[in-house]
């Protein structure tokens, strides 16, 4: 009788009553791995694609579609920031899980690039002055009504103001403006420019502005304002993914009403502060602001930096 060693089927698939494994995995009962791990994967790996600026991709999990605006490191990992067609941005971790032109891809950091050239323009659109040192502060001042106004002015005109030596100071409401002007004692060499919220004809603010102008020598004070309820509205709504700023009922505090309409937390002042910082972060340069605000700030800067007449 032939021994098992002589049987050509022994130790092969012929000796297995179920035949060979069509998936190519092992049936060794001593293998501790789950069955799915024993089967060699035949799924091709996603193609690696550098996350270059402007590349339009879709996040598979959320369906978010946007163009790559930058790749950066956050928390020790690479992330990609995508901007959709309405100007909204979201951040995702680099790696698999994206589509490009209907193809599953793995986003990877772009190849190293030479150091970017220095910007030739400031955020306000002015010609940049490389390595310019801040000028000693002028005697003239620029007053703005509120911290948010000051932060928005700094974000867009900060570089220009430092080069020009213009100091921006907070005005604690417009009601005390006339007395504050008298205390400042403006002159032709010590001018005062004031930016007021919601300065429209016939308003309380317009009457106070006119009186403030009469409280100092002619040509030493300029009070201008924007027509918005709040400086938040100076940001173009498209930067927040809106077609227009929300209409807030009169009985609702305006800022909290806006945050609620945006679906952002609005329970307390801390939420308002965080909401504003989120909005401010969407402002890249002067093109993200409304013309009615841009023009007034530029007018004030020109006024306080102009040489004395005569």
Automatic annotation (TrEMBL):
<feature type="domain" description="DUF3097">
    <location>
        <begin position="48"/>
        <end position="110"/>
    </location>
</feature>
<dbReference type="Pfam" id="PF11296">
    <property type="entry name" value="DUF3097_C"/>
</dbReference>
<dbReference type="InterPro" id="IPR021447">
    <property type="entry name" value="DUF3097_C"/>
</dbReference>
<dbReference type="Pfam" id="PF22845">
    <property type="entry name" value="DUF3097_N"/>
</dbReference>
<dbReference type="InterPro" id="IPR053883">
    <property type="entry name" value="DUF3097_N"/>
</dbReference>
<feature type="domain" description="DUF3097">
    <location>
        <begin position="140"/>
        <end position="305"/>
    </location>
</feature>
<protein>
    <recommendedName>
        <fullName>DUF3097 domain-containing protein</fullName>
    </recommendedName>
</protein>
<feature type="region of interest" description="Disordered">
    <location>
        <begin position="1"/>
        <end position="50"/>
    </location>
</feature>
